[in-house]
Amino acid sequence: MSNLTCPFEIKSDKGISFEESLFIAEEQTYVDIIPNIKMEKKLIFSVEIGPFIPYQKSKVPLWIAKYLDSKNLCKLIPPNWLTQEGLRKLLVDEDKLGQETFCFIDFYYYQIANIYFQLRNDPFNGKKSKVKKLFQDLINRRQAKLKANYKHLTLPKALDVSNLGLIELNFGSNECFHTLSDLQNLWINTLPINSTTQLQTQQYSSQEDEYDNHHYYAD
Fold first, then answer.
1. In this structure, are residues 106 and 165 in contact, taking their beta carbons and an 8 Å threshold?
2. Which of 61, 81, 87, 206 is in the most buried spot, having the most CB atoms within 10 Å?
């Protein structure tokens, strides 16, 4: 996303790539458009769209809206949360809820915004830079809260993930994986030498068993 920075965009070994999450968001999300063409109801890849009446609002999947925009056949209407007023309200709500709770937002909010900021026809009526700045502020606010929560996360404390977006959950799963890996290494390093050697021997034996079983079935 041009002029936007977000560490969540880094691919996780235990999650999905940003490109994959974009594809999912385009498939799952329906948006409002203002078509400039007349078209009867049609079935496209098992998705029913239309009828279109010029300059009358219609709802279509995001991937279709994106295609129509690229052909200059419609203008997309941004969701309420992706407007100046909506983003200001989200920023206020994030502050009111404190550090351990996140405000409700579309599960694919980051992916949807990414698409809207790159459309051929400006859906923000000349206010794209202002909307983009507010959106960046929201990303930074949620990112800081999420990192702070993971930093202080200790068992049996649980993290409320009910209002996190897909890209944040993807980031979070990677953070948890590395945390558990670090804890395992720390535990191994605190074991007596004999116990550590025994543990490594057990792990090696387990790997040998898997190898033997694989070749047994292969034969």
1. yes
2. 87
